[in-house]
Design goal:
21% helix, 6-stranded mixed beta sheet, alpha+beta, 7-stranded mixed beta sheet, 270 residues
Length: 270
């Protein structure tokens, strides 16, 4: 579930299940409303897929303007498809006022500091948002299949509990746009680690493709819901928005054959 809103051409999908609790803004950016020529004005967030750094910087500025925040109040995870979680205190050294701070080699960020935007980028991988409205703490998580079987979602939830005293029964989770079980075909190189990590529960995440022996349709939404459930979080909202099906609105690495930009999952305490 989510709510698409248009801000002067910038479309974002709000995570209403979290925002309705109050005190938080959480959304995933669409592909429109930016200045990236490669995608005809696309809102690409990643330097790694675009040579025009000024365009990316402008796209980031436009996104953070929706929150009334400068680039210097945003922290982005430097993704490696792993299980490392980093706590952001707001006291870390910062670079230029005109740049987002990158935390290298991590796939999840947590904080309890208002006015700091936590960000992960994605273009098929699963963006996950966590919010504890009682302890006032948040997380932004990036979960591709490798991060999923590394338990990144559960590890972020556990880090919030250990760092901020969050209780699972108070925590809310939202799974943002990513490649859905309708489009994510995998083989045993992926299905094997899923079975090893989830055991019998993997049956509910892998659907054999009848006409293609050894191929499966993978449901990463259900996989991460299960991981959050293991961590004690039962209130999980799934947007159900497939990036591969929705390239009119979203970037998809697979559907666009490796040429896609990157959207941003953004969450901040207000």
């Amino acid at each position: 579930m989510g709510d698409w809103r248009d801000y002067s051409g910038i479309e974002v999908l709000h995570m209403t299940a979290l925002e309705s609790a109050g005190g938080v803004r959480a959304f995933f950016t669409g592909r429109s409303g930016g200045v990236s020529d490669r995608w005809s004005g696309g809102l690409n967030w990643s330097y790694t897929v675009e040579n025009d750094k000024q365009a990316v910087q402008e796209n980031r500025r436009r996104t953070l303007d929706l929150l009334g925040l400068p680039l210097s109040r945003a922290v982005m995870a430097g993704l490696v498809h792993g299980d490392r979680v980093v706590a952001v205190t707001g006291e870390e050294p910062r670079g230029s006022h005109d740049e987002v701070r990158l935390v290298p080699e991590c796939d999840a960020l947590i904080t309890d500091q208002p006015g700091i935007a936590l960000i992960v980028t994605a273009a098929d991988c699963v963006p996950i948002f966590l919010y504890d409205p009682v302890r006032r703490a948040i997380s932004a998580i990036h979960a591709g299949w490798r991060g999923t079987v590394a338990g990144i979602a559960g590890r972020a939830a556990e880090a919030m509990q250990a760092t901020y005293g969050c209780r699972p029964e108070n925590m809310l989770a939202a799974v943002g746009p990513s490649i859905g079980p309708c489009c994510y075909e995998v083989d045993d190189a992926v299905a094997g680690p899923l079975r090893q990590y989830y055991g019998e529960a993997a049956r509910g995440m892998l659907t054999p493709v009848a006409e293609r022996p050894g191929k499966f349709m993978l449901d990463l939404w259900e996989a991460n819901r299960r991981d959050l459930e293991r961590a004690g979080i039962t209130r999980v909202s799934i947007s159900g928005t497939c990036t591969s099906c929705g390239t009119d609105r979203l970037f998809s690495h697979r559907a666009e054959r490796g040429t896609a930009g990157r959207g941003a999952a953004v969450i901040t305490l207000v």
